Amino acid sequence: MREITPLSDRDCFYIADRRKTEFTYPIHCHEEFELNFAEHAAGVRRVVGDSSEIIGDYDLVLITGKELEHVWEQYHCVSKEIREITIQFSSDLFFKSFINKNQFDSIRRMLERAQCGLCFPMQAIMKVYNWLDKLASEDQGFYAVMSFLRILYELSQYDDAKVLSSSSFAKIDNFSDSRRVHKVQKFISEHYQEEIHLATLANMVGMTSASFSRFFRLRTGKTLSDYIIDIRLGHATRMLVDSTQTIAEICYSSGFNNLSNFNRIFKKGKKCSPKEFRENYRKKKIIV
Questions:
Q1: d(CA 215, CA 76)
Q2: Which end of the chain is more exposed for a tag (fewer CB within 10 A), N or C?
Q3: What digits encode the pLDDT tens for the residues 115-154?
Q4: pLDDT at 176
């Protein structure tokens, strides 16, 4: 479902501070960026793209992907004192010449990472908790905007915020700043359906296989094989959601050459089978 948000062209952001006993909203996406905070919501299942996690008492997520589906669903949560603060703001809040200033560099990088959804650690949540708490009741619009910018800046200082969805599911080209790694990542994104050899990639950037393996892991935080699997899984999950292809067809279309191996890798990565993933997503997704 594509949500029509209440944010007007004349406002910098829209904020909703809700006290509720359950989450009932269906899975959806929208043009606006969103910062979503949940309190006393242990047991809720958070779905962002192809990421699905059970949250604790506190959860804070930033989403800037316009086509990135997301939902917080009740699941095992029994709390009757849930608090949810949702802040939605337009992508043009930071016009180009503004966001590219040095002083906004960390915020710009955070907004780019959040195209796949970004979950903040507890330390970050506690840092901005009081500001979030007061923001909804701030009746001076200018000071509310200043407070919101402060929240974004403080959150942008946490490099350990976790990216949630795979970039291929979110339809985002998330490439490294390194010229050599970027070249390899671009090749993988264009050839993930084919067999990809380490020696081929190493030769592309003029390195030995062993040196390139170490270099790639240092720059991306993943082994080459894990990176390729993540890209293929992202495309597979997207096809499970958007297409009517059989699981076997999706297996081969996403670059896996063995159905049983695909099922095993999928279950390890997504904690459910491809069939269960498709069924669960379709139960939550509403087309309007």
A1: 42
A2: C
A3: 999 999 999 999 999 999 998 777 668 888 899 999 999 9
A4: 74
- Name the residue type at position 217: R
Domain-by-domain residue ranges, the chain?
13-163, 169-284
Q: Is 199 exposed, middle or buried (0-12, 13-18, 19+ CB in 10 A)?
A: exposed
CB-based contact 77:44 (threshold 8 Å): yes
Residue 284 has pLDDT above 70, yes or no: no
**Which CATH number applies to 169-284: 1.10.10.60, 3.40.630.30, 3.60.21.10, 2.170.120.30?**
1.10.10.60
Q: What is the C-alpha separation between 217 and 201, in angstroms, rounded?
A: 14
Asked whether the beta carbons of 116 and 49 are under 8 A apart, the reply is: yes
pLDDT tens, position by position, 8-47: 777 888 999 999 999 988 899 998 999 999 999 999 999 9
CA distances to 35, 41, 84, 237 from 38, in Å: 10, 6, 5, 26
CB distance 75 to 43 below 8 Å: yes
Both structure tokens of 60: 């804070």
Q: How confident is the model at residue 95 (pLDDT cuts 50, 70, 90)?
A: low
Report the mean per-residue pLDDT for the chain: 90
